[in-house]
Amino acid sequence: MACVAGLLGLAVLALVLSGAKRATAIIYSATLAICVVALFGSASFPIGGKVDASSVILPIGLPWLGAHFRLDALASFFLVVVNLGGASASLYGLGYGHHEEAPQRVLPFFPAFLAGMNLVVLADDAFSYLLCWEFMSLASWALVMAHHREAGNAKAGYIYLVMASFGTLALLLAFGLLAGPAGDYDFAAVRAAQHTPYVAALVLILMLLGAGSKAGLVPLHVWLPLAHPAAPSHVSALMSGVMTKVAIYGFIRVVFDLLGQPAWPASAVVLSLGGITAVMGILYAMMEKDLKRLLAYSTIENVGIIFASLGLALAFQANGLKLLAALAFTAALFHVLNHSFFKSLLFFGAGAALTATGERDMEKLGGLIHRMPFTSFAVLVGCVAISALPPFNGFVSEWLIFQAVLQSPELPQWGLKIMVPAVGALLALAAALAAACFVKAYGVAFLGRPRSGAAETAGEVDRYSRAAMFFLAALCLLAGILPGLVIDTLSPIAVEILGGAMPIQANEAWLSIVPIAEGRSSYNGLLVMVFITISASLAVYFIHRFASRALRRGPAWGCGFSDAVPAAQYSGGSFAQPIRRVFGTLLFGARDRVDMPAPGDVRPARLRIELHDLIWEGMYQPIAVAVGFSSERLNRLQFLTIRRYLSLVFATLVALLLVLAIWS
Amino acid sequence: MVLISDILVQGVQMLLVLLLAPLLTGFVRKVKARLVRRQGASVFQPYRDLLRLLRKEVVLADNASWLFRVTPYITFAAIWVAAALVPTFATGLMFNWTADLIAIVALLGSARFFLALAGMDVGTSFGGIGSSREVMIAALSEPAMLLIVFCMALVAGSTQLSTVANFMASSYVGLRVSLGMAVIALIMVALAENARIPVDNPATHLELTMVHEAMVLEYSGRHLAMIEFGAFLKLLLYISLIACVFLPWKIAVFGTGPLAYAIGAGAYVVKLAVAGFSLALFETATAKMRVFRVPQFLGAALMLGLLGTLLLFVSRSF
User: Fold this and answer.
1) Torsion of CA A43, A48, A52, A56, to 10 degrees
2) Conformational region of residue B76, where left means phi above 0, alpha means psi within -120 to 50, and beta covers everything else
3) B210, B7, B13, B195: which is closest to B111 by C-alpha?
4) Average pLDDT over residues B198-221
5) CB distance from A535 to chain B under 8 Å?
6) CB A463: neighbour CB atoms within 10 A?
7) For residues B17 and B104, what is the distance between their CA atoms, to the nearest angstrom?
8) Using CA atoms, how far apart are residues B215 and B213, in angstroms rounded to an integer?
9) Distance CA A154, CA A160 (A)
């Protein structure tokens, strides 16, 4: 709590200091220190083995309620996620923040944003939860608008604001339903209350709308790829890596904790939404050429994976299969942690490329591996991790999710039995597409020949940024090779929320992980890592001992036609072409139009790619048109004579009285 | 003592796959040549090719980065580790439990990821076209693979290859329709993953029709040797996988003594020869399909996997 107060104080301080020259350094080092303290404070909770939650009631907020704050295992895990992200973003900001043109537009809101996220996780009554949620949204909105003069950012901010208010409205209604007619907003009272199935179903839908819009579930994701990249890169990292997790926290808190056990159809909804979100998110990312927007779309994919896993946990829980529910739930939390690592890392990398070249468009980057070796290495680790490849962390959580998917025959419902393998196939498709997408992102932006002058003259970034990236890259590897430790740390949460836990992994030989039984499946990241290292070293040793060591540099082989123009190399658009043809024709209405001049014509040939965002065009534009149309009509009411206003008031009064009379 | 024999068996397996992989490819090439009435190179030609490549100097493109130079080793190591974890002649090897089937597939995915990056590294169009098509094929084959794993795990109750092989070798499995579907789907996926006809042609050097070969076009010398060796190993791996899951005939069960191991090894070589012969026969009899027909091909594999799974749900006896 003291840390949160410190962060808030820091926001005020930043406002005062904003004119000072060294404000950037002071603010970021202070946020770093506070986040580290908060991190240890919250991390000691699950590791220290304390099971009883500690709570505090502050005499602010609603007079009869006060503000309840409570720290339990679930909250402490999400606090770790928030503060780890916050600490690394502050470290990165120490270097990155110096490139900011108007630091006073970022500095006050950065600690405020962190404080808001911490408070949401800690809140223990509906009122303070919503208040903190709005505080977090507004602070992040201010950060999105930090570069308000850049094209498109104003629109991004506007759409974000609209979607955030919509989400909060849904949350407000959800909490209203949970509190019931008695209006008991304290979470402890809500938890104790019995909810009818209708209320539970409504709350679930409202939570999917409210928390889902913040997390980026398809089709509520439209604001996310606009708003996340618009903010400065370390804030993008926080929004993508951490704020979406806070939304997921909200979903878990309400649906798993407060609501009790929803019936199994709820899990089918969450599962299918998760699977669709994962595939759609990564397909959008595949089509994208803006590096930061690509990362934002990939966040949508990962949120989909997490929701699919949560849906599995709901399905198992609804049927009383506690062990399997714990498996799926732990997998979801593991993926939350992993995604916060590698997505922050990748946004930092994109930010580094942005500072070095001033470009976000990857068709204008290329060859950065030669000029930014450290950044390129760290980003490569992030790309491998996010593509769910062993021995890094992304693979472990996806592996756990697949293990949970493979348990679906245990479910008694036929619908779920058939649906879960299909969702599993969707997740496998998303994982493979993610690998394709990050081959594209890394291959186009960091490999190949530079596509612009800026990319040709890029230089390595400062040491704070590098330290932040390497810190996260190391975490990605550590969580990948020692997954048992993470799973054991997560087990108190599963016990608290679901009443069951995965078997303790620390007892397994060689630090391998065994989700159910050794005969069924096991995985050992450490040994895989060791084996790969040994066999690669063996190969290198034998080759260099016995084979020719001669090496000659020469021009690349162009099959007889070497084009010196770097623009002629494979671009992101051409890399995505096969996948665009396979999936995009249906999902994006993608068309390639070739304009080929007649022989003898000296006009250049042109290839135009048409892509349609069908969700935006089919869902949001009609809504926008309808809203515009009706407000146009209502506008006339502003210009009536006093006589007409009075008659309107009278008519309304009569109508209301009539309604009342009929009602009673 | 047990530990030593364990390590010994595991070591034998690692060396065996290394030694047999080029021979298998040489055998397939020889059979293909004989089927079209050519004399064909000796079955030992791949060994000679590898040795020749190892002796040659590496010609590296001017702007190739360090990633380009380490990729052959990473790829080779990942495929080798994966191949060492698939039971070939005996189940219950020492490190079988390190990775289950999903992890083995993912290891191959790691190898492909780095290879695709290396294809993008030099910045020529050929590397790019190879990489982009390779990742498309991978994106389509992975969901199909997962459904095959699913179908298999439903029958055997495990994704651990040793357990699956032991279960399948036991007498009470019998013939099942869904397993038949799974094996057809797995063969289709294996053809795609190994860049064989009808998905890709390992022998072509016409740039626009090739996928895998275009991606590694810039490699030469010892780097190319590593990549070729990796490709040989991958073919062996997939055949071993199909053999150990669907044809675990005479496979030595853990700890049954040297004689059983020897019989298992003999049976394994026979299985490889049969599979290699069928592969050559199939490749000679079919034509390569257009790149954009591949989604339909792999979609069929996906549907077969799904159908097999559903059949298992509907009736336990299928």
Assistant:
1) -50
2) alpha
3) B195
4) 80
5) yes
6) 11
7) 15
8) 5
9) 10
Q: pLDDT of A385-399, one tens digit each?
A: 999 998 899 999 999
How far is residue A45's CA from residue A34's CA, in Å, rounded to a whole number? 17
- In this predicted structure, the answer to whether residue A441 has a pLDDT above a threshold of 90 is yes
Whether A402 has its CB under 8 Å from any CB of chain B: the answer is yes
Residue A462, token pair as written in the block? 């400062």
CA-nearest residue to B205 within chain A is A559
**Residue pair A636/A629 in contact by the 8 Å Cβ criterion:** no
Question: Is A370 within 8 Å of B65 when comparing Cβ atoms?
Answer: yes
Residue A445: is its pLDDT beyond 70?
yes
For residue A46, CA distances in Å to A39, A51, A480, B146, B318 come to 12, 8, 20, 35, 48
For A506, residues 6+ apart whose C-beta sits below 8 A from its C-beta are A484, A485, A488
Residue of B nearest to A522 (CA): B97
ipTM of the prediction: 0.94
Most confident of A85-99, A173-187, A362-376, B301-315: A362-376
Supply A489's token pair. 């740390």
> How many domains are contained in chain B?
1
| pLDDT over threshold 90, residue A527 | no
**Which of A82-96, A300-314, B72-86 bottoms out in mean pLDDT, i.e. has the lowest?**
A82-96
Q: Do B61 and A557 touch (CB under 8 A)?
A: yes
Over residues A462-478, the mean pLDDT reads 93
A26 touches chain B (CB under 8 A): no
Strands B58-61 and A551-554, bridge-based pairing: parallel
Rounded to whole angstroms, the Cα distance separating B291 from A627 reads 46
* A634 contacts: CB under 8 Å, gap ≥ 6: none
Residue of A nearest to B153 (CA): A406
* Contact check, Cβ <8 Å, B77/A532: yes
Domain housing B248: 2-314
- How far apart CA A193 and CA A176 sit, in angstroms, is 13
**In the predicted structure, residue B118 carries a pLDDT above the cut 80:** yes
Q: What is the mean pLDDT of residues A524-550?
A: 89
A331-347: average pLDDT: 95
B106 token code pair = 């993912």
- Residue from A572, A560, A377, A386 nearest B131 by CA: A572
Q: Choose from B17, B65, B66 for mutation: most chain A CBs within 10 A.
A: B65
Dihedral angle at the C-alpha atoms of A583, A585, A589, A595, nearest 10 degrees? 130
State what percent of residues in chain A have pLDDT above 70. Answer: 92
Nearest CB partner across the interface for A528, out of B80, B98, B102: B98
pLDDT for A408 equals: 85
Other CB atoms closer than 10 Å to residue A566's CB: what's the count? Answer: 18
Gyration radius of chain A's alpha carbons: 26
Among candidates B299, B102, B315, which has minimal Cα distance to A404?
Answer: B102
Instruction: Give tens-digit pLDDT for A36-60.
Output: 777 776 666 554 444 456 677 777 7
Nearest to B117 among A447, A520, A547 (CB): A447
Q: A570, B54: Cβ pair inside 8 Å?
A: no
Given an 8 Å threshold on Cβ–Cβ distance, is A436 in contact with B292?
Answer: no
Q: Residue A429 to residues A136, A270, A502, A575, B188: CA-CA distances in angstroms?
A: 34, 18, 27, 18, 17
Asked if A560 is an interface residue toward chain B (Cβ–Cβ < 8 A), one would say: no
